[in-house]
Amino acid sequence: GLSIVYAEFEWGSDLYRNRQLVAERIGLARERLPRDVNPIMGPVSSIMGEIMLIALPLRSPEQTPSAAPLAASLTPMQAREYVDFVMRPRLLAIPGVSQVIPIGGEVRTLRVSPDSRKMAQFGVSLSQIEQAVRGFSTNAGGGFVDLNQREYLIRLTARTTQPEDLAGIAIGWRDGRPITLAQVATVGFFAGVKRGDAGYAGDSAIVISVQKQPQANSLRLTSDLEAALAELAQSLPLGFSKPKVLFRQADFIQAAISNVMHALRDGAVMVAIILFATLISLTAIPLSLAVTALIFRALDQSINVMTLGGLAIAIGELVDDAVVDVENILRRLRQARSDGSKTSIIEIVRQSSLEVRSGIIYATAIVILV
Which secondary structure element, helix H or strand E, spans residue 190, and what is its range? Predict the structure, then answer.
């Protein structure tokens, strides 16, 4: 009963324009589909969008404190309703979250189970039951009444979720009396058909999959989700244990960033040891990194694997530029000393820097472009 269609677009194309094009074509295709087929488009997420898995274990009776007798009465159906109507909307309200999918528990459904023997006894067909149930629990408009030069709107409010109301509807007539649904069927709340389940540490649980939007910052969004979970943990029903985070995409990101930072640190130390005598080179490295950090802060950029990798490469480029500059200055100073030049040292340094400046700028620009 489920079909999924994937549409692939060129890399770099506008996401929302693509979604608009797909929505237009879905509208055209809807007219050619069966009446009960309703195609919908998935949320804005990526193939790496699963940012967190959260487990909500259900306490077993032996885990329930004696002071909380109601805890043992929390059924899987009640647990799933709490997740669907409390936790899921709270997590979806966090900017950057595209979808929250609960797994496990029992989904409450209002089920009608016809009894074929009673149906034959009352002469009721299955199509009569289907027709009566299809119109149940709906609100409808009844036009308006013009009274004393005023219009009064008429509205039929029949929305209800009570099994007793459904059981009392008339599905046919016999000997001038209505035949109610309760006479030919069993009506009540039951768990929906399961196509899977969830657990934690061998016990029943509800697992929540949180997916993020592609542009969202994973580390920042993870922090927001954990803050929301801490807030929700203070008002959990008695039958729930504290939420357990099973998977955090942020763990992999933090591990990758840590590895690159270690490489950055080791590279800086090795360069400092090799170039211990070159004060300008040693000054250029921390100064440039400090300026980069300030620029990141001003542009609201994050430290990630790509930016750290760029900084690791940039250290080599910084050292190369500084070495070329210092080497030419020393060469010109030695040459001026041997020639007996009267030019001041500051002027010699300025002229020596200008001699290699254009070459250094072009070489650096080429590395940046590459």
Answer: strand 185-191
Distance (Å, whole) CA 100 – CA 97: 8
Take residue 289 and report the two structure tokens written for it.
């990194």
| Token output for 9 | 């677009």
Helices marked H in 144-278: 163-167, 218-233, 249-274
Residue at token pair 């729930």: 240
pLDDT level of residue 282 (50, 70, 90 thresholds): low
> Can you say whether the dihedral through the CA atoms of 219, 221, 222, 226 is positive or negative?
positive
Give residues with Cβ within 8 angstroms of 109, minimum separation 6: 189, 190, 191, 192
Half-sphere exposure of 365 (CA within 13 A, CB side): 6
**Residue of higher predicted confidence among 320 and 88:** 88
CA dist., res. 365 & res. 370, Å (int): 9
d(CA 128, CA 120): 13
Structure tokens belonging to residue 221:
């969004």
Q: Are 114 and 167 in contact (CB under 8 A)?
A: no
Give φ, ψ of 153 to 5 degrees.
Answer: -75, 140
Contact 360, 368 (CB under 8 A): no
Contact between 282 and 272 (Cβ < 8 Å): yes
Distance in angstroms (rounded) separating the CA atoms of residues 257 and 124: 69
Q: Record the pTM.
A: 0.63
Token pair 């008002």: residue: 235
Helix or strand or coil: residue 269? helix
Is 298:276 a contact under the CB 8 Å cutoff? Answer: no
Angle at CA of residue 73, ends 210 and 205, nearest 5°: 25
Contact 237, 72 (CB under 8 A): no
Rounded to whole angstroms, what are the CA distances from 325 to 280, 289, 358? 9, 19, 11
The string over 36-67, giving b where at least 16 C-beta atoms fall within 10 Å of a residue's C-beta and e elsewhere, is eeeeeeeebbeeebbbbbbbbbbbeeeebeee
Q: Report how far residue 207's alpha carbon sits from residue 200's, in angstroms, rounded to the nearest whole number.
A: 8
Phi, psi of 202 (to 5 degrees): 85, 0
Task: Give SS3 for 300.
Answer: coil
pLDDT in tens, 176-212: 888 888 999 999 899 888 888 898 888 888 999 999 9
